[in-house]
Amino acid sequence: MKPHSTDELVRSMARVRDESLAGFAERPAAQSLKEDVVRDGTGPASRAVKPARFRLGVRLAAVGVLAAVAVAGVALRGADDAGPAGAPPADIALGTPAEAAHVLDRAAAVAATRPSAAAEPRQWVYTKMRLTSAAKPAGLVTGGPYKTETWEVWRRGDGKRYTAYEDGKPRAGHERVSSAVATRFEPLPSDPGALLRKVRGGPKGGGGDQMAYETLVTILRDSLHSPETEAAIFQAIKLVPGVTPVEGEVDIAGRPAIALGLTVDGWLHEEVLLDPKTFAYLGERAIAVKTRTFASEGDPTVTVKAGTLQRLMVRVAIGVVGKSGQRP
Amino acid sequence: MRDLAIGASMDDREAGFEAIYAATYEPILGYVLRRCASPDDAADVVAETFTIAWRRLDEIPPGARARLWLYGVARRVLANHRRDEARRRQRTTSLRDEIAAVETDPVEASAIAAAFRGLSDDDRELLGLVAWEGLDHSAIAAVLGCSVGAARVRLHRARKRLDRALRSDARPAAAQRPITERRSLT
Fold first, then answer.
1. Residue B16 is inside which H or E element, if any?
2. CB contact under 8 A, A37 and B93
């Protein structure tokens, strides 16, 4: 193609040259974007599925959902809500990391005494999850509407095969990918420090505290572990800086739960929910702990009030079965 | 019942994606930064572009054409970006900071820049693909999804329009003048 007299003029207006970007692909945020994208719920095999737009929700929103939000018993109030005028959303008071450490120590101690439930390599672990999240693909919840999905996932004991059903229909979807994330770190070290290092560094490297925390919660979510491993997971979560408990117990689908989480971007508490007595995994929740307004030039601003639920995931069932498709 | 085996194939896909990412991240970042002044918006667009790339991995052509395919995706993402709601506003702030560190030249206030800005989006895109991304007719056709002949004709017309704008001593309307220029007049 022949050059043209205007080419050089246009070139002079390039604010950035590719040459000056050399090495940017190797920088940490570029690397963690890559990790994020690959862990994004929607894998290449399932491109018809709408991507979860809300980044923080992308991976954890993977699974299924909780039915009527009212049933969840969580205060779901916000701008669009028809609740009593002016009623503020429930305040979320967070405890200290030391308190979280105390809870996780107890969780580890109790977990270590559980009978072993891990699946044999050729058995399948069945999990059923209900996920309540934003009805709009945009993802941010300012008070509703919410939607609920139910996911059933069979994960083979060796972690190499999965089957996923969404609302009763086979689905090549999110959960396969997040389960694959967990598999990547097997065998899981029983030393908490080694486990955290493995999850943090991983074969690909680059994940920060949030990624490490989310990965540990994912590992907890969708498989049954030996007592030592489960204890190590709790201890590894304890080693992630910044994990704090919600003060008191929270009510999840009519049952009490302990909520521990990491505050992301200063406003969103990404929580794992545990049974107050057995410390067994119950589910996950993301809830605004500070009122936050998102503004950008040319777009309407969005305000999310403190106490607004962004996502709730409840594990309805987990068990070992002989074949994929069987339910315990 | 259908078993959805992923095992090794998922690893292959990840490896394939990583290779594409390593080869195209910088050109895509450059492409986006040249068309999008805000590092925040650029971070969103880059992130969305690669999210789409991962979802549509099977469609990405091999070799050097992967970059062209991604330019096409980035182009559509940029076009949609303004219409989008606050949906990716929460993208990692670290990527924004990293991108904000790119050294960029200030937006030009020259007559050339004014003439360029006076062109249609399509014309600017064609000229940019040639001068900034260094593409030829067939590569432009791949990015824009048109025939090589159409790319040739459209580029020819865009160049002529820029030429004419430069030569006509086109004094931009006050409203279109860059702020720096307007200030200097007061």
1. helix B7-35
2. no
Name the phi and psi angles at A238, rounded to 5. -60, -30
CA distances from B173 to B80, B115, B118, B181, B182 (A): 27, 11, 10, 12, 11
Instruction: Look up residue B67 and give its two tokens.
Output: 């970059």
- Tokens representing A299 are 């777009």
Are A7 and B130 a contacting pair at CB < 8 A?
yes
Gap between the Cα atoms of A162 and A270, Å rounded: 26
Question: Token pair for residue B135?
Answer: 């593409």
- C-beta atoms of A25 and B25 within 8 A: yes
Instruction: Name the burial class of residue A48, with classes exposed (0-12), middle (13-18) and buried (19+) by CB atoms within 10 angstroms of its CB.
Output: exposed
Q: To the nearest whole angstrom, how far is the Cα of A13 from the nearest Cα of chain B?
A: 7
By the 10 Å C-beta count (0-12 exposed, 13-18 middle, 19+ buried), B18 is classed as middle
Sorted by sequence, the CB contacts under 8 Å of residue B109 that are 6+ apart come out as: B177, B178, B180, B181
Q: How far is A61 from chain B (nearest CA, A)?
A: 15
- pTM, two decimal places: 0.51
Question: What is the residue whose two structure tokens read 């059923």?
Answer: A128
Q: Please state, in angstroms and as integers, the Cα–Cα distance from residue A168 to each residue in A125, A133, A159, A206, B4, following that order.
A: 17, 18, 22, 36, 15
> CB pairs under 8 A, 24+ apart, for B96-99?
B96/B39, B96/B40, B96/B43, B97/A29, B97/B39, B98/A24, B98/A27, B98/A28, B98/A29, B98/A30, B98/B43, B99/A29, B99/B29, B99/B33, B99/B39, B99/B42, B99/B43, B99/B46
Whether the CB-CB separation of A8 and A140 falls below 8 Å is answered with no
Angstroms from B186 CA to nearest CA on chain A: 26
Q: What is the DSSP letter of A94?
A: B
For chain A, the first-to-last Cα distance in angstroms comes to 67
Confidence of residue B86 (pLDDT cuts 50, 70, 90): very low
Residue A72: which of A282, A261, A270 has the closest Cα? A282
- Residue in the block written with tokens 């999110």: A174
pLDDT tens-place string over residues A187-216? 889 999 999 988 887 544 445 788 788 889
DSSP code string of B102-127: S--PPPP-SHHHHHHHTS-HHHHHHH
Distance CA B99, CA B43 (A): 7
Structure tokens at A111: 């977990």
Residue A186: pLDDT band by 50, 70, 90 thresholds? Answer: confident
CB-CB under 8 Å, B87 with A137: yes
What is the rounded distance in angstroms from the CA atom of residue B51 to the CA atom of residue B62?
Answer: 18
Q: What are phi and psi of A101, to 5 degrees?
A: -60, -40
Residue of B nearest to A204 (CA): B18
